[in-house]
Write a structure and sequence with these properties.
Keywords: Lyase, Pyridoxal phosphate. Its EC number is 4.3.1.17, 4.3.1.18, 5.1.1.18. 46% of the residues lie in helices and 14% in strands. The protein is an alpha/beta fold and 312 residues long. The chain has a 6-stranded mixed beta sheet, with helices on both faces. A 4-stranded parallel beta sheet has the order 5-4-3-6, with helices on both faces. The relative contact order is 0.16.
Length: 312
């Protein structure tokens, strides 16, 4: 399967009956603080609490069509919850390999959606190794969290919704980047259908994605030390890298940890939306580092799965 606009449209038609067309919100107080009108795509209100379910459902449906025995993935939470929900929705067994430091709320969510959990050490190598072993043992179809055509094509439905909802209003989209599946999906779709809209990638400053996209220098670590647990993976996927190089070189914004926390506070207290730190990451890019030429940004609030006892 290829990453393409026709495949993205097909994935949207395949999954739309089961998913929310998430709303657009705004805040006058935030507009005043940023200095321009800011719109928010509220993907934290999506099924399972994040955008991940878009790609996961597309992947699970296609896996079932190929007569897979089950599906398996490694995840710190959002991808695991999404795949577990999708598998249960269409009647497939699901196993998730989970790092020991994953948030309790996300672990509980995966269990509630019916997944079998296998725990591993909190490193990318451990996640990938244990997942590969389990996939071979169970003979399940592996759904990569980000480096996967069916995930990337599935995520693009959010871009199609954005174009339909407010495509004539915005000049830019700000989104959080981790492994790059979501970022490359939105960048590819918008770059092909609406190249007049810029896509900015917001990252924890330690990631240094610009060094990879512009100079070919990868991040020296595998896992980032950040409050934004959904984007702790330091490297983008091999499918994602060329897409991000083409559409997002020079459009990467690094933010500090305190900026993520302050952005989170602002959304919680002013918009009354319980987003997670990985979603606040994208907003921090607008709040603290908006390029001067950007006048009508959209922030994608990518998820809302946060521990109830989370304290800033």
């Amino acid at each position: 399967m290829s990453i393409s606009i026709p495949e993205m449209r097909a994935a949207h038609q395949r999954t739309a009956p089961f998913l929310h067309n998430t709303p657009i919100m705004k805040s006058e107080m935030i507009d005043e603080k940023v200095g321009v009108p800011v719109l928010f795509k509220c993907e934290h209100l999506q099924k399972t609490g994040s955008f991940k379910v878009r790609g996961a459902l597309n992947s699970a449906i296609l896996a079932k069509e190929q007569e897979a025995k089950g599906v398996i993935a490694h995840s710190s939470g959002n991808h695991g919850q999404a795949l577990a929900w999708a598998a249960r929705k269409i009647g497939l067994p699901c196993t998730i390999v989970v790092p020991k430091n994953a948030p309790i709320s996300k672990i509980e969510g995966m269990k509630e959606y019916g997944a079998d959990l296998v725990f591993c050490d909190a490193s990318v190598i451990s996640r990938e190794t244990v997942c590969a072993e389990q996939a071979e043992q169970l003979q399940y179809h592996f759904v990569d969290p980000y480096d996967c055509e069916t995930m990337i094509n599935g995520h693009a439905s959010i871009g199609l919704e954005i174009i339909d909802q407010i495509g004539d209003t915005i000049d830019s989209i700000f989104l959080s980047v981790g492994g790059g599946g979501f970022a490359s999906s939105v960048a590819y779709l918008i770059g092909n259908l609406r190249p007049d809209i810029e896509v900015f990638l917001v990252e924890p400053i330690e990631k240094k994605l610009s060094e990879l996209l512009q100079n070919g220098v990868p991040c020296p670590v595998d896992t980032l030390d950040t409050v934004a647990d959904g984007v702790r993976v330091a490297h983008v996927g091999t499918l994602c890298e060329p897409i991000l190089k083409r559409y997002c070189s020079g459009k990467v914004i690094g933010v500090e940890e305190n900026e993520i926390k302050e952005a989170l506070k602002l959304v919680w207290t002013r918009m009354k939306q319980r987003i997670e730190p990985s979603a606040a990451l994208a907003f921090a890019g607008v709040l603290y580092h908006k390029p001067a030429h950007v006048k009508n940004p959209l922030v994608i609030l990518c998820g809302g799965n946060v521990d109830l006892d989370y304290v800033i």
